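Hi W.,

Here's what went into the run:
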Amino acid sequence: MKRMKVVAEAALPTTVVDDSETTVDQFRSKTIFGFWLYLMTDCVLFAVLFATYGVLHNNISGGPSGHELFSLPFVLVETLLLLTSSFTCGLAMLATQRADKKQILIWFGLTFALGVAFLTLELTEFTKLIHEGNSWRASGFLSAFFTLVGTHGLHITSGLLWMGVLISKVVRQDLTPGLIKRLTMLSLFWHLLDIVWIFIFTIVYLIGAR
Amino acid sequence: MAQLDDKHQSQDSQPDSADAAGHGSIRSYTIGFVLSIALTLEAFILVLNHSFSHPVVLVLILIMAVVQLLVQLFFFLHLDRAAKAPWNIIVLLCMGVVISIVVFGSLWIMQNLNYHMLSPAETEKYMQKNEDL
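Here's what came out:
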């Protein structure tokens, strides 16, 4: 009986309107809460990699240490790029809230470009390290370094793919509540990657190059 | 689209509804952005200058990272507005506990193990010294 009542209620138009409104709300939508849970488990993944790095960061096995390898100004540029992309992503979400398609495309396009620039710099750093013979095979320190920073880079890559797909959807389709929900989840993902990078910047680069 | 337009109009009449939807305002994003950049540059300059002794610098830049974490949680992820749905915060705090157990536990155990384990050279010395045992 109870279930039938729920179904009947769901069929009412008022309930449907309510539902579409809650999907846009970051804190009332169940889908977004589920995505938040995924993000938290992702944090645990990064925490484990940080712990591994913390244990292994002195095991350089006669090779170079972070002090000799890292170029701080280079990493600062990477950090500022990612920080700015997190900001433009926030502005894109404000535009999404106003249902302003042109602004959404401008800000998400800018976020995408900044993300690509960040990834290019990171890959440049990786290829430079590998060319100089300091790949992940050189020492325990470098294995942990490449795993931690590489996992973050992989997240950025998948975030960029996701953003590309959603941008093309915004271009081609109307701004449905489902699309807004997906854009909201993408923005949460992107902000979180920025937070993880702050800890990589501090713990790996600043402390490593000290 | 009609639903969205309705929502848009109702938002115009209520200035606080931007907060209610949990996306913040341009002001909160700008404050968060400026604070984050300031903290990043400050930590960077602190490390470049070497003006403090090493342990002090270490503690300071770690504190700045944590402050920046809080800044971004509040101004970018708007967790201060999640009072309606406390589950987001509860899960976040649980994860904080799990993460600190994993990170500090691992570091502690491995350091302890390192301390109690003799290096190969030390092992040889120990065996030579106690040959008659």
